[in-house]
Amino acid sequence: MSDHVEAPGAPLPAFELPYYVVVFSSVRAAGDQGYGETSDRLDALVREVPGYLGHESARTPGGLGITVGYFRDGAAIEEWRSVAAHRDAQRQGRTEWYESYTLHVAKVERSHGFVRE
């Protein structure tokens, strides 16, 4: 099992440096076409990837969705990319679920946080 963190309703903490982020920004197509079920299944699968640290998601009222995935290293990202169910979902996303999306991968070299006492 991975060492991921969950913080519902709050930002995830700053992780030990360096780590990597995968930022997925998208605009969904109309209808569900099984998106919710697949999303839940992938959420469970990514948690099994060694080096997965957690993720956060938000959607604007206008429909822009942003998900930020946190990974210990590039190898963890590559392992997630190679999961067959994830590859299948990517194909289905291009044909059914998304009007558009952008993916960014970056190495985090600086990170800090704040929590009011």
Automatic annotation (TrEMBL):
UniProt KW keywords: Monooxygenase, Oxidoreductase
EC number(s) per entry: 1.14.-.-
Domain ABM: 18-91
UniProt keyword annotation of DNA-binding present: no
Superkingdom in the source lineage: Bacteria
Record-linked PANTHER family: ABM DOMAIN-CONTAINING PROTEIN (PTHR37811:SF2), BLL5343 PROTEIN (PTHR37811)
GO molecular function: monooxygenase activity
Residues of the signal peptide: none
Annotated protein name in UniProt: Antibiotic biosynthesis monooxygenase
Gene3D superfamilies: 3.30.70.100
Keyword Oxidoreductase: yes
InterPro entries (UniProt xref): ABM_dom, Dimeric_a/b-barrel, Jasmonate_Hydroxylase-like
Native organism: Streptomyces tabacisoli
Leading EC class: oxidoreductase
